[in-house]
Amino acid sequence: IKKGMVVEYFWDEDFGWRECTVVNDPIPILNELLITVHFEDDQSTRKLPFRIDDKKRWRQPVFHKSSQVHQSIVSSTTIIDIDNNSFQ
Predict the structure, then answer these.
(1) Phi, psi at residue 28, to the nearest 5°?
(2) Span 21-45, pLDDT tens digits
(3) Are 58 and 7 spatial neighbours (Cβ–Cβ below 8 Å)?
(4) What does pTM read for this prediction?
């Protein structure tokens, strides 16, 4: 995950998956990354943790709203490489 990437974050059962843009490079803190994202739907900017135990809350966009281009659905086995800040 790096600055400029568009990702989706699972907020909760009410809001579901929310598309957001990473606005700063992630900051490593102990066993997690602190990721600052901007949500287009409500124009909020939030600092969210990326921890190994809740990595399923993050995924690549299934449907990128701004470009109107469908993207493949990412399986639950998607790996996010914390050391290299990338999806695999």
Answers:
(1) -75, 130
(2) 999 999 999 889 999 999 999 999 9
(3) yes
(4) 0.68
- Residues whose CB falls within 8 Å of the CB of residue 77, separated by 6 or more in sequence, listed in order: none
Q: Which two tokens stand for residue 11?
A: 């907020």
Identify the residue with better confidence: 71 or 84. 84
State the SS3 of 20-40: EEECCCCEEECCEEEEEEEEC
Show the DSSP H helices in the chain as ranges.
none
Is there a contact between 7 and 78 (Cβ–Cβ < 8 Å)? no
Q: Is 83 helix (H, G, I), strand (E, B) or coil?
A: coil
Can you say whether the dihedral through the CA atoms of 61, 8, 57, 12 is positive or negative? negative
